[in-house]
Amino acid sequence: MQSVSIIVPCYNEQDNLPKLIDKIAKFISDNKDYYVIFVNDGSKDNTLECLKNSINEKFVIVSHSRNREYGAAIKSGILSAETDFCITIDGDGQHDLQDIPKMLNQLLESKSDMIVGNRNGKGSSSFRNLGKWMIRKFITTMTDLSIEDVNSGMKLYRTEVVKSLIKWAPSDMSFSETIVILHNHFRYKISELEINIFNREAGKSTININTAIKAVKEIVFLLINFFPFRFFSLIGTIFFIFGLFWSLPFLINGEGLTIGSGFIFSSCVLIFLLGIILQTLTRMKFEDYLHVNSKV
Questions:
Q1: What percentage of the chain carries pLDDT values higher than 90?
Q2: pTM to 2 decimal places
């Protein structure tokens, strides 16, 4: 039997935790090789007290003295895991624990390194689903990643693999997307499985438009660092198309290139060259890791 750590980041979840803790305690009592790591991310309510009052020999509590954001909480949980696999679930009780063994079975059968729990649009408003779709489209444009629900909070990892990657992941909400991109970048196999989602019974999600904007900024930063040629070639192509439309009327009239169109085309060349240079530096930066850890 493979051992699994269930990592639960918690921020101001005092109203959801009693029921969730009872469900988890029952679940792990039926699954002897499952353990739980609760990460209190500097909650301002009684979250920490709720956790301390729920003593269980298979529970580990990690507590941040102040709020360090979602990604930092996940990192703390992963670094504390000593099992073969670890899975993250949200502290609001929306995830179905019965999906965990299903995800583990798929990971083992498919020989994957990560399983992403696909919510298939459940549990989110139309506005949030639109935002997720936009982020997913942006990522798939820049990478060859085909995972649909990249920002799902329920993901199963091979502990050894994810521990080697989290040093490059951000500490905010964009951790969800970027940890998938990192697995993909280093040639680890990613699969997806549809999961159940329950309605939040109490509390309020901290995700808002500012969170989404910040996540996009972090993803752009990550893409520039890991996929610079794809990113800058896209920008260069946009400039080239704009310059082409700008100069076409002048070329048709036999007037040649204008100063403006010449500047745009020169910028295209510089942008493409920048992408090539940064891509070369990126390969050099991660050459040792890729040599040791890449999978063919």
A1: 45
A2: 0.77
